[in-house]
Amino acid sequence: MALLNFRKRETSRETPVNGQLEAFLKGYSIEVMPRTAAKVENFRDLLPEGTRVYIAHIEGTPIEDMVATARRLADEGYRVMPHFPARIIKDAATLADWIARYQGEAGVDQALLLAGGVAKPVGDFHSSMQLVETGLFDKAGFKRLHFAGHPEGNKDIDPDGSTRNVDAALRWKQNFAEQTDAQVALATQFAFDAKPIIKWADSLREAGITIPVHIGIAGPAKLQTLIKFAIACGVGPSLKVLQKRAMDVSKLMLPYEPTEVLTELAAHKAANPDFNIEKVHFFPLGGIKANAQWAIDHGGASTRPANAS
């Protein structure tokens, strides 16, 4: 993934901190992959101590690489949340082995459970709900379980363009959240427009879904990079925000930053404290360093890394 040019960093440090945005960014999480994490010399230079770091498990990544990354991040003082994509897990024995490795080598007690991006399951599982139903996470004493959320729907789950299957899955997850001692949340796909996000979050509450939402946001990146990822990930209505920006020649070559969408969400949260979006979860599509620096510039003291001077 391309990293941003950091020649502007000195001026970015003078960015006035918006109090509402600072509060909204507090306790944000971020996602890495083993290959991107390997390029970071020391996460303490980038992220506040205790930040929740998701480790994305892409098909073909050896479990050994995932566990090694989890161990490194835990050793550096971060809360590690590996992905468990159902469709790339062969069977319950494989799932139990992964859980045991993460716990034994990195002390992991939280996970993001999701179906995964592959079309055909490699084994027994095709949904996050099936992973839960094995009882293995409960048996292992996992304290926190997150599920995927889809503010703009998911055509893999609902090919007809409706939200029927997504909604049914949310009701199942709500029922599970009410019955388990584990803390449950929805970590969503990234989106670029605050208004559809707010409308979706409010619709959950109206439907009786009270699971806290950790809203997915794409970090700073080249516009072309974001459009590529948005199309690949099936991001729908808010993709128009990027396409409109791409038509403006004056903005086409400038890096995208999530300032506008997050400022609007932060203002809504400040005006509506019971708004069910609880945290921000970053997808560092333009690089971990660029994303971390943006958070430092806009989030005040709560987003400064442990090694900050």
From TrEMBL:
Molecular function, one GO term: oxidoreductase activity
UniProt entry keywords in alphabetical sequence: Oxidoreductase
InterPro entries xrefs: FAD-linked_oxidoreductase-like
SUPFAM superfamilies per record: FAD-linked oxidoreductase
Keyword Oxidoreductase: yes
Official protein name in the record: Methylenetetrahydrofolate reductase (NADPH)
